[in-house]
Amino acid sequence: MKVSPAFVLCASVSVQLALAQIQLRVRPSPSDHLPVPDLHEDPDPALEPGERDLAPRLLRRKLGSSFDPVFSSIGSPTPGNGTDITLEDGTCLAGAIPLEFQQLDFTGLKAAARTERRVRRWLWSYTRCPVLSVWKDLGARFWPRYVKEGQCLTDRSCSLPEGMFCKPVQSVSVTLLRWHCQQGSRALKNCAWIRARYPVISQCGCACLSFTHS
Fold first, then answer.
1. In this structure, are residues 49 and 191 in contact, taking their beta carbons and an 8 Å threshold?
2. What is the CA radius of gyration of the chain?
3. In degrees rounded to 5, what are phi and psi of residue 190?
């Protein structure tokens, strides 16, 4: 039976890609606690900040230089519910191929240099883990009340052979003001704005799934 060149090339690429995956740099161990779960607030309106407590000039002064316009927003970032989903590094791979992919050995592929470049760029695209950014409304008891959370795409494996998935590998802390009421009689409640640090995912990486042992 005559084997077509296309089939030979396809089989060769599959073998070489599996070998190349072993050479890829292993990412750091991910965090299992991000993004932050939704908070369950006491629905009592008496514990909400009043109109005077929400004066923007006063709150900006309290937060000072810690205000981060990149990861937080005073008003709704988009019309409606304030959820705007974007990929931080876009969907196109522009620029030079990273060094870790340039150093992969494809001599066994016996393909033209142009084909090798395409394979390297495809590997780069397949194994990368972009950050999915979502604006989240934290409610009136936070100021700014909108924070840009990062999420990692987990709809498919990011490794060859399959088995690794995109996980959080780096985070940043956004400083917010949190409306806090001391426990006790609600009629005599003592409430004030306090500083709080809210972690958000800033980088995702391809990593093995973590397992918990019972």
1. yes
2. 24
3. -120, 105
Q: How far is CA 94 from the centre of its chain?
A: 20
List, for residues 53-92, the tens digit of each pLDDT value. 999 999 999 999 999 999 999 988 864 444 445 555 444 5
Find the angle CA(155)-CA(157)-CA(161) to the nearest 5 degrees.
160
Token pair, residue 178, equals: 């949190």
131-137 and 146-152 strand pairing: antiparallel
CA 154 to each of CA 31, 35, 70, 127, 204: distance values in angstroms, whole numbers, following the listed order: 14, 13, 25, 12, 11
Residues 6+ positions from 40 with CB-CB distance below 8 Å: none
Helix pair 5-23, 113-127: axis angle to 10 deg? 50
CA pair distance 203, 84, nearest whole angstrom: 18
To the question of pTM greater than 0.70 for the whole model, the response is no
**DSSP 3-state assignment of 184?**
coil
Q: Do the Cβ atoms of 179 and 191 come closer than 8 Å?
A: yes
